[in-house]
Design goal:
The strands form nine sheets. Strands 2, 3, 4, 5, 6, 7, 8 and 9 form an eight-stranded mixed sheet that branches. An eight-stranded parallel beta barrel has the order 10-11-18-19-20-21-22-23, surrounded by six helices. The protein has a five-stranded antiparallel sheet with strand order 31-33-38-35-36, with no helix packed on it. It folds into four domains: about 110 residues, Chitobiase/beta-hexosaminidase domain 2-like (Chitobiase, domain 2, 2-Layer Sandwich), CATH 3.30.379.10; about 375 residues, TIM Barrel (Alpha-Beta Barrel); about 70 residues, no CATH class; about 140 residues, Galactose-binding domain-like (Jelly Rolls). The chain is an alpha/beta fold. Helices cover about 20% and strands about 30% of the residues. It is globular, with a radius of gyration of 28 Å. Bound molecules: acetamide (ACM) and zinc ion (ZN). The site of zinc ion has 8 residues, from helix 9.
Length: about 750
């Protein structure tokens, strides 16, 4: 086969001299000529700074061996509190000294963290670019969540997590304190919650979906005493971070029910589980349980001054409630139509309790089901729909959709990524996030308080690993939460690489290097596809363009600007492996030759945004996902019927379809029930040519009568619902599809 192959190297001509080094990018930054330089001492005039702020500054400067001395007169850094506005804005003007002005303690703190990011070292000389900065935050809720139930982190580690948040101007720490696998907060009235509920006897090894499941039979757990909680809340407050506690109800309550089975529907004694997932046993909705919850919250309110108290509300299967006479009785007495309304009743009771005490509830978006409680705010995680719906009902909303904000997902496809739950959320995708969806009408946009990333820790057992998952993605997210005008991704990436990897190191924060690995981008071109390897620096872009298919692909593609190169090695007749020898890691893609490479496909059913990597091209890019599942390889659908139309040529005779499916029931991914193929020349009249049952995991070869037509329609029918007894039972399963190719002889 004859084919063409061209190769370009793109080099960025952009200079970086006027880059603002601060993340999140300030509202206004102008750089002047020259630097303010100093050796190892800075004098400070700290009038009007909040208590502890000078110590904070001094501690951070000491990391660079700079000593801070307080003076009365003119100083190297002069902090000036200005009366007038109660907002969080600040200004910094650096010339022959630095003048920092602010209205509120928060403003001073944000200014201080910006100032710290301006300092550069050159041997024993320190310098700060002469510049003017004006800045203020866009959103009031800039959150990070941490699950301490699946894995436990010490107070010292949580403080480290909070320190990192403060450096980047996050202001809400959502502390997920209770879940099935461990209750982590001392409640004096119910000591068994921590005596029993804080410990499990085993923990599942590997991924939840691995078969057979294996367990590490070792007692695991821990909890925070009330004194430790108070200390932590005060520590965070000094850094202008509010701690939002989460006490999960009515689901994710197995640890509490292990301690007090009388608050379940069955009363049956069960252990604290060592397996992740969603469990049928939840709190019973009877009066005694509600009283217990209110008693727990009474102690929680004394520890946490935050306005909002998170009550969970997610993933509560209604199975036990349907079979519990006490729950059915509550429904009858209160005239509730179904178990969703019963959940709303449960949450409503807690809402009233918290509202009477001057607090507000916030819960995961399931609290919309069965009717939203009058004062509740919604944290939208299953996409943005819940948030949009709540905002339209004039309820406050925090956006935290899995697609952009779940930092427990993989951040690259490289083999070196540590085991994660699944999903694919690279830095660039986080960066794209805008917490205000277009679907919210203008007058309701004010109900979006901000956004938050979540760190669920099933697969993170150390703070080092938590930080690896959080950084640098948290820096991409804070850009969306802080900046009124965030720069484009490439500009952000340059600033990040130039200044912030060293800053993270200076502050002893672990971070992923995934962004350094080249990202393979595949695009359609006339008659085929184009490959581009996009590295983190502009001079690492390798563009490989081909207008025909793979045979004869060169063994080596070298960046003409350096001796870095990519290797292609031929593995089999029509299969190529792409290797890279320039990184510590290997990226292996299997390419198949196929006549359908880059073929146009029209989706009647679009993929779910969470698993829509490269759209329909994903199905005809010559890359077969095989066993890989880091979220970017597969197209995921969650619909009752999936239809797509493939453009063919009526002279091209085909006699079957190859189509790949994934099965991973633990991740709610199921094989379809049936695949049908239809043909048409006009896209109006369709004729069925295949009805394929018994679909297998992997590539399916489905043969049909030799046919030619302008259009082939592939129609995939998933199961109606996930079968009973499995995770997600009763809900629509995911369908994961990869390469499709028509069989010709
Ligand atoms: C959630 O991720 N279950 C809120
Ligand atoms: Zn019950």
């Amino acid at each position: 086969m004859k084919f063409l192959f061209t190769f370009f190297v793109l080099i960025s001509a952009a200079t970086s001299s006027s880059q603002c080094p601060i993340i999140p990018t300030p509202d206004h930054f102008s750089e002047h000529t020259g630097f303010f330089t100093f050796s190892d001492t800075l004098s400070v005039k700290a009038d009007g700074l909040p208590a502890g702020a000078k110590d904070y500054l001094s501690m951070h400067l000491s990391k660079r061996a700079i000593t801070l001395v307080e003076v009365d007169g003119r100083a190297d850094i002069q902090f000036e509190a200005v009366a007038g506005k109660p907002d969080f804005s600040y200004k910094i003007h650096v010339d022959s000294n630095a003048v920092v002005s602010f209205y509120t303690p928060e403003g001073a703190f944000y200014a201080m963290n910006s100032f710290l990011q301006l300092i550069r070292n050159e041997k024993t000389i320190y310098k700060i670019p002469k510049c003017s900065i004006r800045d203020q935050p866009k959103f009031g809720w800039r959150g990070l969540h941490l699950d301490v139930s699946r894995h436990f982190f010490s107070v010292k580690e949580i403080k480290k997590f909070i320190d990192a948040m403060a450096l980047y101007k996050f202001n809400k720490f959502h502390w997920h304190l209770t879940d099935d696998q461990g209750w982590r907060i001392e409640i004096k009235k119910f000591p068994k919650l921590t005596q029993i509920g804080a410990y499990r006897d085993s923990t599942v090894i590997g991924h939840y979906s691995d078969e057979p499941r294996k367990y590490k039979a070792q007692r695991y757990g821990g909890y925070y005493t009330q004194e430790e909680v108070r200390d932590l809340v005060a520590y965070a407050k000094q850094r202008f971070i509010e701690v939002i506690p989460e006490i999960e109800m009515p689901g994710h309550s197995r640890a509490a029910l292990a301690a007090y089975p009388e608050f379940s529907c069955t009363g049956k004694k069960q252990e604290v589980p060592g397996l992740w997932g969603v469990f049928n046993d939840i709190y019973c909705s009877k009066e005694e349980t509600l009283r217990f919850m209110k008693d727990v919250l009474t102690e929680v309110l004394e520890l946490f001054p935050a306005d909002y108290i998170h009550i969970g509300g997610d993933e509560a299967p209604k199975f036990q409630w349907e079979h519990c006479s006490a729950c059915q009785n509550v429904m009858k007495i209160n005239g509730l139509a179904d178990e969703h309304e019963l959940q709303s009743y449960f949450i409503g009771e807690i809402d009233a309790f918290l509202t009477q005490r001057g607090r507000k509830i916030i819960g995961w978006d399931e609290i919309l089901e069965g009717g939203l409680s009058p004062n509740a705010a919604v944290m939208s995680w299953r996409g943005e729909k819940g948030g949009i719906e709540a905002a339209k009902q004039s309820h406050y909303v925090v956006m935290s959709p899995t697609t952009y904000c779940y930092f427990d997902y993989y951040q690259s496809s490289y083999d070196s990524e540590p085991l994660a739950i699944g999903g694919y959320l690279p830095l660039e995708k986080v960066y794209d996030y805008d917490p205000i969806p277009d679907e919210i009408p203008e007058e309701y946009k004010k109900f979006v308080l901000g956004g938050q990333a979540n760190l669920w820790t099933e697969y993170m057992s150390s703070m080092d690993h938590v930080e690896y998952m959080a950084y640098p993605r948290a820096l991409a997210l804070i850009q969306s939460l802080w900046c009124f005008n965030k720069p484009d991704y490439r500009s952000f990436l340059k600033v990040y690489l130039r200044f912030h990897e060293s800053y993270l190191k200076l502050n002893d924060i672990n971070f992923a290097r995934s962004v350094h690995y080249p990202d393979l981008k595949i695009a359609r071109v006339e008659g085929g596809i184009e490959l581009q390897f996009l590295g983190s620096n502009a001079n690492e872009i390798f563009t490989v363009k081909r207008t025909s298919m793979v045979q004869g692909i060169p063994e080596k593609v070298t960046n003409s600007n350096s001796d870095k190169h990519m290797l292609f090695s031929k593995k089999a007749h029509d299969r190529f492996e792409l290797l890279s020898d320039q990184f510590d890691d290997t990226l292996v893609y299997d390419f198949y030759t196929t006549k359908d490479l880059g073929r146009e496909i029209e989706f009647i059913t679009p993929p779910h945004p969470k698993y829509d990597h490269n759209g329909s091209l994903n199905l005809v890019d010559g890359v077969w996902s095989g066993e890989k599942f880091k979220g970017s390889e597969w197209l995921g659908f969650r619909d009752t019927i999936i239809e797509m139309i493939v453009e063919m040529n009526d002279s091209d005779f085909v006699e079957g379809l190859e189509i790949g499916f994934k099965e991973d029931n633990g991740s709610w991914i199921y094989l379809p029930h049936i695949v049908r193929v239809y043909v048409s020349d006009d896209k109006i009249q369709w004729k069925e040519i295949l009805r394929g049952f018994d679909i297998q995991s992997g590539i399916n070869k489905l043969n049909f009568k030799r046919s030619a037509a302008n259009y082939f329609k592939v129609e995939i029918k998933p199961l109606d619902a996930i079968p009973f007894g499995n995770g997600g039972a009763g809900t629509l399963p995911w369908t994961f599809i990869d390469e499709i190719q028509f069989i010709r002889n």
